[in-house]
Amino acid sequence: MRVGSWIIGAVSALGVFLFTWPLYLNTEEFGFTEVTQATWLSILLALVAVGILFLSINARLLDSKTVALVSVLVGLISALRLLGAGAVGIEPIWFLIILAARALGAEIGFVIAILAMSVSALLSGGIGPWLPFQIFAAGWIALGVAVIPKLKSFKLERYFLAIYGAVASFIFGFLMDLQLWPWLVGSDTQLSFQPGAAVAENFSRFITFHFATALSWDLPRAILTFLLILITAKPILFALKRACYRLESVAQWRELNAHAKAQTGA
Length: 266
Fold this sequence. Notes:
It is built from nine helices and no strands.
């Protein structure tokens, strides 16, 4: 099960722009008299990009060998997100997204992450202009697992995964604050996005806003993810890899059996 790399790359490039435009884009040059007009346009484009991802999944990804496993993981992650709904920084979903991506591969992890964020939003009523950005951020966190090298020492690999989980938790908070910044702060405060201002000035305004509001959410999320990966990495990775092996074995047996029957019939 693979997503075309060029699809992920193209849609992710658009996603990066949709997250970062408040830092450098002079919206007034594009005819936007208010920042909210540009923000609504970015949300619309984000929805289109997410739609492209879902069409790609529907067309290429869900084969008989993995659809059941993906469905189970999406359901589990969605249920975990409900457990943390409304709690400050208590989001026990990231450890399972990261471990699933490690066991099944970054691209399958990407699919699991974006489906889980979508399903959990439907279940929890968390549908809003922030949802497509949450989907992007979750997918990127799953893809990022691929940068962690395969290590002979599982204990060391487990710590690498836990550290990555903590860092990813902070990155998620950073990204979500970045896309919310123009909405929350408005246009007439010392921390507001200023169309046409230097990148350094807008970035300074955003960083001040981020650290003034985010640590109470990001720090608990990072600590929880770090600890959950340390505690559960061994049994979860073993179970997922075993499930993949058995699915692959069943698929090969079915293929060989069908081939044998075809030869017998001939």
